[in-house]
Amino acid sequence: MDSDNKPTSQSSSVGTLVSTVMQEISSLVRNEAALAKTEMTEKTHQAMGAIASIAMAGAVLMGGFLTLLAALVFLLNEVLPPETTPWLSALIVGVVVSVIGVMMLKAGQKKLQARNLMPSRTMHSLQSDKTTAKQHQHNVKEELK
To answer: Per the record, which residues fall in region Disordered (predicted)?
Structure first.
């Protein structure tokens, strides 16, 4: 009679083990999906900040361009009497503003690089889960022997 109970006990033990593994996998997938969603939300906010920086840089560049145009107007107004040069100050301001705008634009572009937008925490977590699953699989095989 004891031998009859043993296979039933072993099969119910395997069934319980399979059920537990399925529940853990289901929970793991839900947790990973939640982590990915959270991290992608963070990365979207990061991208929006970079886009805002680029937009601000565009506005500064436009100001520089308009100042350079004003300098050109002063230059043309002063072509006849060359002794005075009021356009020079406008030209210097325009160049400085344009350089600042270019620096801001490059900073915004750097923030949008692909490596900064990768969901690195999710990737690390998935690698950890893969290792844990392999260990769990090995443990289950050992228990079934």
So the answer is: 123-145
Helix (H) or strand (E) holding 33: helix 2-77
What values do phi and psi take at 79, rounded to 5? Answer: -60, -40
**Dist CA 41 CA 1 (whole Å):** 60
Q: Does residue 130 belong to any structural domain of this protein?
A: no
Structural domain contains residue 126: no
- Please state the domain count of the chain: 1
CA 131 – CA 126 distance, rounded (Å)? 9
| Confidence (pLDDT) at 105 | 92
The count of other CB atoms within 10 Å of the CB of residue 19 is 10
Range of the domain at 32: 16-114
Distance between CA atoms of 38 and 123, rounded to whole angstroms?
A: 13
Domain contains 140: no
pLDDT of residue 59: 93
Would you say residue 89 lies in a domain? yes
- Chunked into runs of 10 residues, the chain (145 residues) has average pLDDT values of 50 78 86 87 89 92 86 66 64 80 89 73 80 79 72
